[in-house]
Write a structure and sequence with these properties.
Layout: E1 5-10, H1 15-26, E2 31-38, E3 46-49, E4 52-58, E5 69-72, H2 76-88, E6 92-95, E7 124-126, H3 130-146, E8 148-157, H4 164-178, H5 210-223, E9 229-236, E10 243-251, H6 257-265, E11 270-272, H7 284-287, E12 293-300, E13 307-314, H8 318-334
Parallel strand pairs: 1-2, 1-5, 2-4, 5-6, 6-7, 8-9, 11-12
Antiparallel strand pairs: 3-4, 8-10, 10-13, 12-13
Bound molecules: 5'-O-monophosphoryladenylyl(2'->5')adenylyl(2'->5')adenosine and trans-cyclohexane-1,4-dicarboxylic acid (L14).
Trans-cyclohexane-1,4-dicarboxylic acid (L14) binds near residues 98, 162, 200 and 214.
């Protein structure tokens, strides 16, 4: 019989935390005991898992006794503070925050790309940024075939990436806007309903945002190739779930549009949706609740010798966060 594990979900009441519970149940993860951890605000709240009701407990340094696996998504500051205690208690932590991603001792893993890296863990495995995960799932097979030299990407990121409160705010702002009243942003810096905001995370000295630079550094680490050049522009769009990306790549070796389509048709974690005659292409509403990254609009870039343009969409809460983390947990227990 398969071994069963004690699992703790840190940030269980959030957008990603809720998705952890759904996906653990869907994929029949072998759980012995489940612990739901969140802030004081959520203590006593009840959440359903596999038809059973579980009570949310306050996250403390003593929460991890007897826990085998921690799935964390309560923000970087909480991960920095509490995961060292979890490691001390003997748990392996899969962290969805940005806290440890660029730490040299911490593997940064997308199972379709670099599953072998989990072996090197010292108690913490980092789950990459949502926009980076879906991009490398699509680009990895192309990189192996033709070696990518440069990536230019623009993201169209849904509000759910920023948490449950931002989801509620798009809903509220939309209602206000549609009744001809003046929108007063609370959670967002600006109106998000019927608008676009070209800022995700804080600005850095080079005038890129932190989200844009995460895509640069994380892509190089996951693909194991520090020579890949990445230029990212990240945009918040008034979509509830799923991030989309316009991607242009330059490769060392020439690769044709048809070859890329063939690679995408059999790439793990990818669903090819590319039929212009039938108006079929990836869209966020179709990516929502799906495990696969949708890839389409594949074109030869006619402005350079070796270039390809494509358009992708994926569920940022599933593949961009909870699903990728649980796939890492599955690799761990099958190792
Ligand atoms: O890194 P930062 O700056 O700390 O940012 C963290 C934020 O980014 C989101 C996450 O949103 C979080 O708000 N986030 C981080 N990584 C993400 C990723 N990869 C990501 N989002 C998507 N993809 P979230 O709402 O989805 O999740 C928040 C979870 O974290 C728990 N939490 C927060 N502080 C904690 C903590 N857990 C333990 N200790 C702490 N100190 C949080 O639980 C949630 O599970 P919660 O108990 O704080 O709140 C859950 C419910 O309470 C409501 N609420 C939140 N804030 C307030 C509030 N109600 C009243 N007043 C408030 N101030 C929420 O709506 C929710 O229903
Ligand atoms: O680094 O869409 O995981 O705001 C989580 C929130 C990435 C951006 C991370 C969003 C961030 C994301």
């Amino acid at each position: 019989m398969r071994k069963k594990y004690n699992v703790a979900v840190m940030g269980a009441t959030g957008a990603v935390g809720t998705s952890f519970l759904n996906i653990l149940a869907e994929r029949k993860f072998p759980i012995k005991n489940l612990k739901l951890l969140a802030s004081e605000r959520s203590v006593g709240k009840k959440l359903k898992f596999n038809g059973k009701s579980y009570t949310v407990e306050k996250l403390t340094h003593n929460s991890f006794e007897g826990v085998d696996i921690v799935l964390a998504s309560a923000g970087a500051s909480r991960s920095l503070e509490f995961l060292p205690s979890a490691v001390k208690a003997g748990a392996v932590c899969i962290d969805n925050s940005s806290a440890f991603r660029m730490d040299k001792l911490v593997p940064l893993v997308v199972p379709e790309v670099n599953p072998e890296m989990i072996k090197a863990h010292k108690g913490i495995i980092a789950n990459p940024n949502c926009s980076t995960i879906q991009m490398v799932v699509a680009l990895w097979p192309i990189h192996k075939a033709a070696k990518i030299k440069r990536i230019v990407v623009t993201t169209f990121q849904s509000v759910s990436g920023a948490g449950q409160k931002k989801i509620n705010e798009l809903w509220e702002q939309s209602k206000v806007f549609l009744t001809n009243k003046k929108v007063k942003p609370v959670e967002f810096a600006h109106q998000i309903a019927f608008n676009l905001i070209p800022q995700i995370d804080v600005f850095l000295d080079n005038r890129y945002t932190k989200e844009e630079m995460k895509m640069v550094h994380e892509t190089r680490k996951i693909m194991g190739d520090p020579s890949i050049n990445v230029n990212a522009t990240c945009i918040r769009v008034p979509v509830f779930y799923a991030h989309s990306e316009s991607i242009n790549i330059e490769t060392q070796k020439h690769i044709s549009r048809a070859e890329v389509a063939k690679l995408m048709a059999r790439a793990p974690g990818v669903k090819l949706v590319d039929d212009p005659d039938k108006q079929q292409y990836p869209m966020p509403v179709d990516a929502e609740h799906q495990d696969d990254t949708l890839v389409g609009r594949i074109r030869q870039d006619e402005s350079v010798a070796n270039g390809i343009s494509l358009w992708i969409a994926a569920d940022n809460i599933r593949k961009g966060a909870a699903l990728n983390a649980i796939q890492i947990a599955e690799l761990l227990i099958d190792a």
